[in-house]
């Protein structure tokens, strides 16, 4: 039996295994919803799924009838298909060893320009062969020189920033995995005086862990999609890279807190890894 929970702990559930499938999805909708490089979903029979708490705190996304999130912290909530009798859960919110690892990448034709797939898993441009489902993507945004643009899943929240960001990191800490409901967070740090909201700032909610000094997440209250979080105490805006519509002109400098990474996720490639923070951080 596997247990799962959102970042704030309001939404909790358990699911009996074994999981039938685990996959990484790089479509623009998944990236917008989670704010990370890709979403990782695990699928098991619906009969084995049980809510433990917080079902009333789950809201359907205004942008997609198949996406759900916690209204308190914005973390993704399970998709329960009664028609097809399966439960799709977001692996970043699950606890312990799941007994399964991702089996393939889908929608790699839509992957983020700043993310490089370095493992040997099978890759599919869209859906895997034999999958009958519509292809839905966010429309492309025309790039503007010197400006990086971004938005939430529904598009009601939009922002932009000037110049090259301060840094970009992948974070594997438990908080980031639960907050983004993903294998890891992908964050871009931007000087606060270079960041500006274009629209929808009033629609952004934030949640800060009571025991954390700085850690918090932000999300669109309509669609549940990730959103930037302003950190005046650090003089920066923390932008979930999956929300970006155009290339930020920077690439991830490190995997951090890999000592806390998910057991089902294998780090490959040559991006430097640190058990916690890099020495200069």
Question: What does this molecule look like?
Answer:
The chain has 281 residues and is mainly beta. It has two domains: 2-110, Metal Binding Protein, Guanine Nucleotide Exchange Factor, Chain A (Beta Complex), CATH 2.170.150; 147-260, Metal Binding Protein, Guanine Nucleotide Exchange Factor, Chain A (Beta Complex). 5% of the residues lie in helices and 34% in strands. The protein has a five-stranded mixed β-sheet. The chain has a five-stranded mixed β-sheet with strand order 19-20-15-14-21. Strands 1-2-5 form a three-stranded antiparallel β-sheet, with no helix packed on it. The protein starts with a strand and ends in a 25-residue tail after the last strand.
* Overall CATH class of the largest domain: Mainly Beta
Mean pLDDT reading: 95
Radius of gyration: 18 Å
Kindly give the count of domains: 2
**Gross morphology:** globular
H and E order = EEEHEEEEEEEEEEEHEEEEEEE
Task: Provide tags for this entry.
single chain; mainly beta; Metal Binding Protein, Guanine Nucleotide Exchange Factor, Chain A; 2 domains; five-stranded mixed β-sheet; 5% helix
